[in-house]
UniProtKB/TrEMBL annotation, chain A:
Source organism, top-level taxon: Bacteria
Domain ABC transporter residues, every copy: 7-234
Keywords noted in UniProt: ATP-binding, Cell inner membrane, Cell membrane, Membrane, Nucleotide-binding, Transport
Cellular-component GO terms for this entry: membrane protein complex; plasma membrane
CDD domains attached to this UniProt entry: ABC_MJ0796_LolCDE_FtsE
Family affiliation: Belongs to the ABC transporter superfamily. Macrolide exporter (TC 3.A.1.122) family.
InterPro entries, sorted: AAA+_ATPase, ABC_transporter-like_ATP-bd, ABC_transporter-like_CS, ABC_transpr_LolD-like, MacB-like_ATP-bd, P-loop_NTPase
Full protein name: Putative ABC transport system ATP-binding protein
Lineage, top ranks: Bacteria, Pseudomonadati, Pseudomonadota, Alphaproteobacteria, Sphingomonadales
Originating species: Qipengyuania nanhaisediminis
Molecular function GO labels: ATP binding; ATP hydrolysis activity; transmembrane transporter activity
Cross-referenced PROSITE patterns: ABC_TRANSPORTER_1, ABC_TRANSPORTER_2
Length: 235, 370
């Protein structure tokens, strides 16, 4: 495992306005996510893990603090540069997959490549290759609504990895899957998303897959209360 | 994205098609009805200039000239020929006893200038026979539905008239039955007043100089002279100025636009709302607002293209299916109308698309994790 931090946050604070009130969701978080590790971000609902992951992947501005992703201070970038940075360096896997219903699985998986400007035909071919690694190449021509939940999740994984990002961010990737499918997805992510120069961070509260993590961070009331290889006993 | 949601896709296509149909069809009827105001002029294709009393406004709103006007006009240099033309209202009693208001048009005895160019049945020569009249084809369907009028006798202002031919004429704005006869015969049919000459029809030696000739006639005779196009335009303007038709059709066209905006806007908003997570996901992945705009514009263009095509086809089908109906005789779609509809559809899509897109562009990518 590499010791170089893939993500480095220093003093990250995030406030939200709720009417006259200001609610602080994250309290000055200092955190290093190392490349080559499968890192879980765990916490109760409202603990701030969605806010934290959104800030780490450059889609939500922190109120204070600094976030470096592979050495780039992402919130120092202009809007356009940040969008481009995300496109080239980050892969996303969403809880509800968010596949585009009108286009087939391969085209869905090819979205990041097409957004990067690659020729559609070539992008599709690359997407099918990635789908083959995930054992769903035979589903390439099907629309999302013709696929099972597990298959849709694999298409979403293919979309997250097709452009070979250095950071993969997953939001509850096993929430809609049964235990065995969930473990298979985690094994897959470890296999394709974790490498010497890559990091994978997963937001989850699925205790069925906690044993597959290299590192578990527990967030509570906007603070990291645990950082280890296993879940603390009280959780 | 949009094509994957059949319900919304067809909803949008329907909205656009309905708007296009309403706008195109109503504008087509409006324009064709307006042109009926000039039908009296269009039916006399050989006249380059129409000469009339200065107070006359259209073929149907005219003040009689003294018969000497004909000789005055003939004396103007540049006039190749000038013939008398009479247009008057009369009542006709049919064989079955029905009373019908008709327009009597008296054409030049010698040349028959003033008759429509084509005949549906019979020949223009029949006017040489005693008491002959030629009925227009649309009038025929009104007075003699489902039967041939040839040989039918009419009581025209207490005078005997026999229908011996059917003319192929553009109906008037009011679709009044028109009976054509010789000028000399028309004088018998029309109640006697001192002046009965309605117009003098003029052929120019050089038809391309009709405008100059009309000005010369005005200068030299003190009468009003208008080229064929000017007089046709006056007929159209008369309807615009004196009827509520432009307002009524304008309201319908505006309703077509508003209905289009309502249906398309609502469906577009629902589509965006239902897919906001997908748009958020695309933004998170790194798809720029510009690319999302292009994506939505491409989908709107597809919907617009299909809907517009169906709307125009619907109008064509309407015109075609009613072409046999005398009310719609000669109706056509002027090329400008589909362009106006296209502009309206583009505006509808641009407006509704912009309103719907605002939500997408404002959506924070982080919303996708919530």
């Amino acid at each position: 495992m590499s010791e170089a931090p893939a993500i480095c946050t220093r003093g990250v604070t995030r406030d939200f306005k709720a009417g006259q009130q200001t609610i602080t969701v994250l309290h000055g978080i200092d955190l290093d996510i190392r490349a080559g590790e499968l890192t879980y971000l765990v916490g109760e609902s409202g603990s701030g893990k969605t806010t934290m992951i959104s800030i780490m992947c450059g889609i939500l501005w922190p109120t204070e603090g600094e976030v470096k992703v592979f050495g780039t201070d992402i919130y120092e970038l202009s809007d356009t540069e940040l969008v481009e940075f995300r496109l080239n360096n980050i892969g996303f896997i969403f809880q509800q997959y968010n596949l585009i219903p009108a286009i087939d699985a391969a085209s869905n998986a090819a979205v990041p490549l097409i957004a990067q400007g690659m020729d559609r035909h070539e992008a599709r071919e690359r997407a099918v290759e990635m789908m083959a690694k995930l054992n769903i190449a035979d589903q390439a021509d099907k629309l999302p609504n013709q696929l099972s939940g597990g298959q849709q999740q694999r298409v979403a994984i293919a979309r997250a990895l097709v452009h070979e990002p250095r950071l993969v961010v997953c939001d509850e990737p096993t929430a809609a899957l049964d235990a065995s499918s969930g473990r298979r997805v985690m094994d897959l992510l470890r296999e394709v998303a974790v490498a010497e120069d890559r990091a994978c961070i997963i937001v989850t509260h699925d205790n069925r897959v906690f044993d597959l993590a290299d590192r578990i961070l527990v967030l509570e009331d906007g603070k990291i209360i645990h950082d280890g290889t296993e879940m603390p006993e009280e959780h | 994205m949009l094509t994957g949601d059949a319900q919304k896709f067809y909803g949008l296509v329907f909205g656009i098609a309905f708007s296009t149909l309403l706008i195109t069809q109503q504008l087509t009827i409006f324009v064709n009805l307006l042109e009926r105001g000039a039908s009296g002029v269009y039916n006399v294709s050989s006249a380059d200039v129409w000469v009339m009393d200065p107070v006359s406004r259209t073929t149907d709103v005219s003040y009689a000239l003294p018969s000497t006007a004909l000789d005055k006009v003939r004396g103007v240099p540049g006039v190749e020929w000038a013939v008398p033309h009479i247009r008057a209202q009369a009542s006709v009693r049919t064989k079955s006893g029905d009373l019908e208001g008709v327009a009597v048009i008296g054409v030049d005895d010698a040349t028959l200038i003033g008759l429509p160019k084509n005949m549906v049945e019979g020949s223009s020569d029949v006017l040489s026979q005693p008491d002959s009249v030629i009925i227009d084809d649309v009038g025929m369907t009104r007075m003699f539905p489902g039967q041939s009028p040839i040989g039918e006798r009419l009581e025209l202002n207490d005078q005997r008239a026999v229908i011996r031919g059917i003319a192929d004429a553009t109906p008037s704005f009011t679709s009044t039955v028109v009976l054509y006869t010789k000028y000399s015969q028309a004088l018998n049919y029309v109640p006697g007043t001192r002046n009965r000459l309605s117009f003098v029809l003029v052929g120019a030696e050089d038809p391309s100089q009709a405008k100059a000739l009309s000005e010369k006639i005005e200068r030299e005779t003190g009468l009003k002279a208008q080229t064929r196009d000017e007089f046709a335009r006056d007929g159209v303007d008369f309807i615009i100025e004196n009827t509520g038709i432009p307002l009524n059709f304008g309201i319908t066209v505006a309703l077509g636009f508003i209905v289009g905006v309502a249906i398309v806007g609502l469906t577009f908003s629902l589509f965006i709302r239902d897919n906001i997570k997908q748009f958020g996901a695309l933004k998170a992945i790194g798809v720029t607002n510009g690319k999302i705009r292009k994506m939505v514009a491409a989908q709107a263009a597809l919907v617009g293209f299909v809907g517009y095509g169906l709307g125009v086809l619907g109008t064509l089908a309407f015109i075609w299916s009613f072409s046999a109906n005398p009310t719609f005789k000669g109706f056509y779609i002027p090329w400008q109308i589909p362009i106006i509809s296209l502009v309206a559809v583009t505006l509808i899509l641009a407006l509704t698309g912009w309103l719907a897109l605002r939500n997408v562009l404002k959506t924070e990518p982080a919303a996708v994790f919530r």
